[in-house]
Amino acid sequence: MSESARKSFLTTAQFAILNQACIPIREAFGPWLHLVGSVTEHAGFRDVDLRLILPDEDFDHWFDGRVMLWSLVCLTVGQHVTALTGLPIDFQIQRMTEANEKHPDGTDPDGHAGPPVRRWRRRNPVLTEPRTTEPRSTAMPEDPKHTALQALLQDRKTSTKGRASRQMALCLSTELSMDLADAERELAKAKQAVTDAESTADRRAGGKLAIDPELTKQVTAAEKSVAAAEVKADAASVIITLTALKAADYDVLLKDHPPREDNELDALVDYNRDTFPDALMEASALKRVEDADGNLIDMDVADLIATMSNGERTLACQVSNDINLQQSSFSDAKSQSRQRSGSSSKRR
């Protein structure tokens, strides 16, 4: 190859190493990285000039009025690429408009003569990614475990799978709900009577407890009453599922309910305490409604929420807050995920 036809005076090995070292830069900033300067002109180059020519809006977003940040990024990236390649790298980030004005002769990134105005935006950069027909993540042999993890990630992106959730059973019959509550109170009283009798019984006669058999019968009868009341209440109940929002959706909801001015309690939690809990609960409620056996029912979850009592709504709001703030330590991720995946409860 003649010297006039060469894109650079790096050896093939040097260019390949440089190309590999520059891939993270391209992935971070986009396809605007160019090899320019003396390395493209003659074999006696003193340094290797890399220029990241960003579109004006991108450059302004990162570096407008932030000279120290620009200097730090240029220096750090240059030193990093130098350490990886062993080449004397001179790395700079430039704004596209200024780069065009600085080179009115139309010199292309690879050192060849070009049109009067340099069109960086339309040129393919000299440095390209390794040639492969597939992304690097799939160009290597697939691990079945990784495939399963990718599927789980896709579920998290497109559905509610993988996010914390709880179920609430809502009894639509006030009468049956009260009957169940009464039966549970009677059972608690019967069990307490047995406990009291055990604590006061005379244990001196061979260690035998002098418990009135009638108390045991009362407990058994109360347990049967609770079981019967539960069957009736379940037949009149529906299941609402509350699922944690994605972080971005949660943040948007927070912004929609900012803390009120001069409200100290709002300031502590950083949201409007009168409106955000209800909004979070309604946003966390899935659209599907199920019966006690898990079968889908054609009901509007918004209508069900509207019929909740104050106590039911307070409980639903608390559950919604808990699942959306549920955390798992990265260092203890395995045990946390097992606890999370197995935690599904019904609350009345």
Q: What are the SSEs and their pairings?
A:
Blueprint: H1 12-21, H2 23-29, E1 33-36, E2 48-54, H3 56-63, H4 67-85, E3 89-95, H5 96-102, H6 136-139, H7 144-158, E4 165-171, H8 174-200, H9 213-235, E5 237-243, H10 247-256, H11 264-269, H12 276-284, E6 285-291, E7 296-297, H13 301-306, H14 310-325, H15 333-341, E8 346-347
Parallel strand pairs: 2-3, 4-8
Antiparallel strand pairs: 1-2, 4-5, 5-6, 6-7
Helix pairs in contact: 8-9, 12-14
Describe the structure in your own words.
With 348 residues, this protein is α/β, with parallel strands linked by helices. It has 2 domains: 3-129, 2-Layer Sandwich (Beta Polymerase, domain 2); 165-347, no CATH class. Helices cover 51% and strands 12% of the residues. It contains 15 helices and 8 strands. It has helices spanning 12-21, 23-29, 56-63, 67-85, 96-102, 136-139, 144-158, 174-200, 213-235, 247-256, 264-269, 276-284, 301-306, 310-325, 333-341, and strands at residues 33-36, 48-54, 89-95, 165-171, 237-243, 285-291, 296-297, 346-347. The strands form 2 sheets. The chain has a 5-stranded mixed β-sheet with strand order 7-6-5-4-8. Strands 1-2-3 form a 3-stranded mixed β-sheet. Helix 12 crosses helix 14 (310-325). The longest helix has 27 residues, at 174-200. The protein is elongated and about 105 Å long.
